[in-house]
Amino acid sequence: MPVPYLDIQEDVLALDAKELKKLRRIVALAENLIASSPKPKRGRPALPKGDEKKRASGKRVRRTGRELAQFRKMLKAERKKGVSVSQLARQHGISTAYIYMLP
């Protein structure tokens, strides 16, 4: 059923002046919103080095590559000293499976 207030000619939508004004206003508002919004960042930044309390809180932590290598090295060294896996897991907020999977 054709819509009476819209005339479609050659894939072009014919709008009256009032509708065009509304459409341009919507487009201008959208452009302003896009221009004023901050650029999205990917991922979550790694915690600074002094936030050991946050790391042990049980929440997931995103580490940089260098921090991760140091963390794994430290875990291996503690395991060689004889520290139990369950104690390490509780202390650092990681799973026991993660410690067992270390090469």
Task: Name some characteristics of this structure.
single chain; 2 domains; mainly alpha; 103 residues; two-stranded antiparallel ribbon
Topology, element by element:
Layout lengths: L6 E3 L2 E3 L2 H20 L15 H4 L9 H17 L3 H8 L3 H5 L3
Antiparallel strand pairs: 1-2
Structural account:
The protein has 103 residues and is mainly alpha-helical. The protein folds into 2 domains: 7-36; 52-100, no CATH class. Helices cover 52% and strands 6% of the residues. The longest helix has 20 residues, at 17-36.
Q: What average pLDDT do the residues reach?
A: 79
How many domain units? 2
Helix fraction by DSSP (H/I, runs of at least 4): 40-55%
C-alpha termini separation: 68 Å
Count of helical regions:
5
Radius of gyration: 29 Å
Q: How many DSSP-defined strands?
A: 2
pLDDT < 50 runs, ≥5 residues: none
Largest sheet data: 2 strands, antiparallel
Shape: rod-shaped
Q: Structural class, please?
A: mainly alpha
**Topology order in helix (H) and strand (E) letters:** EEHHHHH
Percent strand: 5-15%
Going across the major beta sheet, what is the strand order? Answer: 1-2
Offer a concise description of the structure.
The chain has 103 residues and is mainly alpha-helical. The chain contains 5 helices and 2 strands; from the N terminus they run ββααααα. It has 2 domains: 7-36; 52-100, no CATH class.
